[in-house]
């Protein structure tokens, strides 16, 4: 929604919403074909990365 002809602010809001929903990331992934085996490997690696990050944060909070 463009209010008071402020297109820049409307674009900023739109980009922020798209970033939060992961649209830019998905567009980047869909530029080229990804084999199913590559997709599984990437998703597995992302899951491991997420888990390690969570564990790091948890350890930091608990003071280990």
Give structural notes.
There is one protein chain. By secondary structure, this protein is mainly alpha-helical. The protein contains three helices and no strands. It has helices spanning 7-21, 23-30, 36-62.
Concise summary:
With 64 residues, the chain is mainly α. 78% of the residues lie in helices and 0% in strands. It has three helices and no strands.
Label the structural class: mainly alpha
Helix content: over 70%
Q: For the CA atoms, what is the radius of gyration?
A: 18 Å
What global shape is seen?
Answer: flat
Give the overall average pLDDT. 93
Number of distinct beta strands: 0
Q: Major sheet: size, sense and barrel closure? A: none
The number of helical elements comes to: 3
- Which ranges are low-confidence, i.e. pLDDT below 50, for 5 or more consecutive residues? none
Distance between the termini: 48 Å
- Report the β-strand fraction as a percent range: under 5%
Order of helices and strands: HHH
What are the SSEs and their pairings?
Elements: H1 7-21, H2 23-30, H3 36-62
Features:
64 residues, flat, 3 helices
